[in-house]
UniProtKB/TrEMBL annotation:
Signal peptide: none annotated. This is 9-cis-epoxycarotenoid dioxygenase. GO terms for biological process: abscisic acid biosynthetic process; carotene catabolic process. The keyword Cytoplasm does not apply. Residues 1-33, 53-92 are annotated as: Disordered. Residues 1-11, 55-78 have a biased composition (Polar residues).
Length: 607
C-alpha cells in the first residue's frame, strides 16, 4: 500500500485537561481527554488516558517514539509500525494499482484530517477506549515455570485460555475497544507448574494489515458512523476493486469468544467465521486458519455458541445486518456435522450477541438494540436503541427444521447483552432465563447521559399464557452491584442451576472482583482481587464433573495490579471463596473478554 499520505499514519498526541470526577462518572482521579465538554455521567467504555502501545516482536516495527504523560504509572512508549512502501520496485502491484493506492490514500488522508478536526465521542476515542490496562501488548512467547504463591489444585490440569481485543496498529481515527485484533492469552498447568503465552489470532484481516504495515480494514464501531463511515466503507471496497485488499475471506477480528468443540479451540467474533487456534505441545498458540466446518458453514457465527454438556452438540446463531434473512439458527452434532439453517423471522437486523439453551429449547432474544444502516446517511451510528420496539424472547425446539414452531414472548424494557443460563420448569409451563439486564441498552456503543446499570435478573417465559415476568435476583438494594461477564457451572448449562459467578463491573468498566450469587435465594458473596487490582470474567472450573455439589470447583481470573503494573492469575476456591494460588505472569495482561478451560486429556486429542 502506498504511503504517500503520512497524515493517515500520524498519532495525535493527547491533550490533557483535569475535569471534575463526573466527566467519567465513576472515579475521582479520572483525567479527561476531551476539552470543552460539559460535565456529565457517561456510560461508554472509559479508562485512564495513558496509552500503552507496545513494540511488537516483528520486523514491521521500528524504534518507538515516546509520548510522556504525567502519571503515577511507569512511563510507556508508544510504538509506530514501520510502513511498507508498496510503490517501490519490489511491489507486486501494477501501475494502475499503484496509482489507485496513492489516490485512495490521499482521499483517506483528507478524510482522517477532517474527522480529527472535531472531538471524537468517548465511544470512538482511542485515547479513552484503549488506555491504561485496556491498551494492547506485544505477543509473548512461552515462558515456563512461572512463580506460584500457594498451591495449584490438582484438578487444574490443562490450559486456561482467554480472548481479548488487542489492536496491532495505532488507530488513525476512531476506535472502540471492541474493534481490536483478537489475542488469546494462555496459562498451561502441568504437574503443579504453570507457563504463559499470548498470541494474535492470525485472521485474514490481521495478515493483510501486517503485510501492508498499516490498518486498512474499517472498524465496525469506532469508524463506521455518519457520513465519514460511509466514506470509509467506499474506500475499503474501492481498494478491493483494485485488488489492494481482499475481503472475500472475511473481515472479522476473532476477539470475543472461545469454545473447545470437536477437538478444536475456536476463536470467535460475530462478524466472521470462527478461527481454529491450536495449543502446541509446549503451551504456545498458533492459528490454523479460518474454520468453516469442512465447508458446511457459509455465514458468520456469533461469539457465544452453546455447548450442550450432555449431548456434546454445539448450538449457534448467525445474523446479517444488510440482507434477509437477518437471523439464522443452526446446530452441529458432536462430530461436527451441521444442520440446515432455520430462519428466525425478525423485522430488523438485531444485535444478537448471546442466547440460551435448555434441555429441549433454544431461547433467542430479539431486543431493542438494532442495526439501521440508514442512520449513517443521517450522520449517526448504525447501532440504534429503538425505544418503540418491545423486547421479546423466542422459544424454539432445539431440533426444529424450520421456524414454524417458534413462539414469541414479550419482555418489555429488557436488554440482556449476556444470558447466563436457562432451564425448563414443566410444573408451571415456564422457561426460566437468567441474564444481566443492562440500561441504557446501547450504553456500550453510544454516549449517553445516564449511569450504566447491569442487574442480574430472572426472566420467566410462560409457554401457556405467552406472558412474562422479570425480577432482580438480588433483592437487597444495598447489595446490588453491576454484574457482567461470567458463567454458571458449564456441566449444568441448560439445566437448573443454583449458582452464577459474575464479574463485579465496578467502577465501570473495570472489574474489581467477582460475585457468587445464589439464584434461588438472591444471596450474594463477593470476592475482591485486592487493592488497586482489577480483572475480568471469572471462569468456573469444576473439581470433579461427577461431584454432587454444584459449586465444587475453582474460579480462575486474570488480574492486573494498576499500582505495581504487574499481572497475575488468581485461583479461588468457589465453595469457600478463599484464594488458593496466585501465578505471577511475565508480562501485562490487558482486560479482555471471554475464556474457557481445556483439560489435559482434551489437549492431547486436538485435531
Amino acid at each position: 500500500m502506498a504511503t504517500s499520505s503520512p497524515a493517515t499514519n500520524t498519532w495525535i498526541k493527547p491533550k490533557i485537561s483535569m475535569p471534575s470526577s463526573r466527566e467519567f462518572g465513576h472515579s475521582s482521579n479520572s483525567i479527561s481527554l476531551l476539552k470543552n465538554k460539559p460535565n456529565k455521567i457517561t456510560c461508554s467504555l472509559q479508562a485512564p488516558p495513558i496509552l500503552h502501545f507496545p513494540k511488537q516482536q516483528s520486523s514491521n516495527y521500528q524504534t518507538p517514539k515516546t509520548n510522556t504523560i504525567p502519571t503515577s504509572k511507569p512511563t510507556t512508549k508508544i510504538s509506530h509500525p514501520k510502513q511498507e512502501n508498496k510503490s517501490s520496485s519490489s511491489s507486486p502491484w501494477n501501475l494502475v494499482q499503484k496509482a489507485a493506492a496513492m489516490a485512495l490514500d490521499a482521499v483517506e488522508s483528507v478524510l482522517t484530517k477532517h474527522e480529527l478536526e472535531h472531538p471524537l465521542p468517548k465511544t470512538a476515542d482511542p485515547r479513552v477506549q484503549i488506555s491504561g490496562n485496556f491498551a494492547p501488548v506485544p505477543e509473548n512467547p512461552v515462558t515456563q515455570s512461572l512463580p506460584v504463591t500457594g498451591k495449584i489444585p490438582k484438578c487444574v490440569n490443562g490450559v486456561y485460555v482467554r480472548n481479548g481485543a488487542n489492536p496491532l496498529f495505532e488507530p488513525t481515527a476512531g476506535h472502540h475497544f471492541f474493534d481490536g485484533d483478537g489475542m488469546v492469552h494462555a496459562v498451561e498447568f502441568k504437574n503443579g507448574s504453570a507457563s504463559y503465552a499470548c498470541r494474535f489470532t492470525e485472521t485474514e484481516r490481521l495478515v493483510q494489515e501486517k503485510a501492508l504495515g498499516r490498518p486498512v480494514f474499517p472498524k465496525a464501531i469506532g469508524e463506521l458512523h455518519g457520513h465519514s463511515g460511509i466514506a470509509r466503507l467506499m474506500l475499503f471496497y474501492a481498494r478491493g476493486v483494485f485488488g489492494l485488499v481482499d475481503h472475500s475471506n472475511g473481515t472479522g477480528v476473532a476477539n470475543a469468544g472461545l469454545v473447545y468443540f470437536n477437538n478444536r479451540l475456536l476463536a470467535m467474533s460475530e462478524d466472521d467465521l470462527p478461527y481454529h487456534v491450536r495449543v502446541t505441545a509446549n503451551g504456545d498458540l498458533e492459528t490454523d486458519g479460518r474454520f468453516d466446518f469442512d465447508g458446511q458453514l457459509k455465514s458468520t457465527m456469533i461469539a457465544h455458541p452453546k455447548l450442550d454438556p450432555v449431548s456434546g452438540e454445539l448450538f449457534a446463531l448467525s445474523y446479517d445486518v444488510i440482507q434477509k434473512p437477518y437471523l439464522k439458527y443452526f446446530r452441529f452434532s458432536k462430530n461436527g456435522e451441521k444442520s440446515n439453517d432455520v430462519e428466525i423471522p425478525v423485522e430488523d437486523p438485531t444485535m444478537m450477541h448471546d442466547f440460551a439453551i435448555t434441555e429441549k429449547f433454544v431461547v433467542i432474544p430479539d431486543q431493542q438494540v438494532v442495526f439501521k444502516m440508514s442512520e449513517m446517511i443521517r450522520g449517526g451510528s448504525p447501532v440504534v436503541y429503538d425505544k418503540n420496539k418491545v423486547s421479546r424472547f423466542g422459544i424454539l425446539d432445539k431440533y426444529a427444521k424450520d421456524g414454524s414452531g417458534l413462539k414469541w414472548v414479550e419482555v418489555p424494557d429488557c436488554f440482556c447483552f449476556h444470558l447466563w443460563n436457562a432451564w425448563e420448569e414443566p410444573e408451571t409451563d415456564e422457561i426460566v432465563v437468567i441474564g444481566s439486564c443492562m440500561t441504557p441498552p446501547d450504553s456500550i456503543f453510544n454516549e449517553c447521559d445516564e449511569g450504566l446499570e447491569s442487574v442480574l435478573s430472572e426472566i420467566r417465559l410462560n409457554l401457556k399464557t405467552g406472558k412474562s415476568t422479570r425480577k432482580a435476583i438480588i433483592q437487597n438494594e444495598e447489595e446490588q452491584v453491576n454484574l457482567e461477564a461470567g458463567m454458571v457451572n458449564r456441566n449444568k448449562l441448560g439445566r437448573k442451576t443454583q449458582y452464577a459467578y459474575l464479574a463485579i463491573a465496578e467502577p465501570w468498566p473495570k472489574v474489581s472482583g467477582f460475585a457468587k450469587v445464589d439464584l434461588f435465594t438472591g444471596e450474594i458473596n463477593k470476592f475482591f482481587y485486592g487493592d488497586n487490582k482489577y480483572g475480568g470474567e471469572p471462569l468456573f472450573l469444576p473439581r470433579d464433573p461427577n461431584s454432587k455439589d454444584e459449586d465444587d470447583g475453582y474460579i480462575l481470573a486474570f488480574v492486573h495490579d494498576e499500582k505495581e503494573w504487574k499481572s497475575e492469575l488468581q485461583i479461588v476456591n468457589a465453595m469457600t471463596l478463599k484464594l488458593e494460588a496466585t501465578v505471577k505472569l511475565p508480562s501485562r495482561v490487558p482486560y479482555g473478554f471471554h475464556g474457557t478451560f481445556i483439560n489435559a486429556k482434551d489437549l492431547a486429542n486436538q485435531a
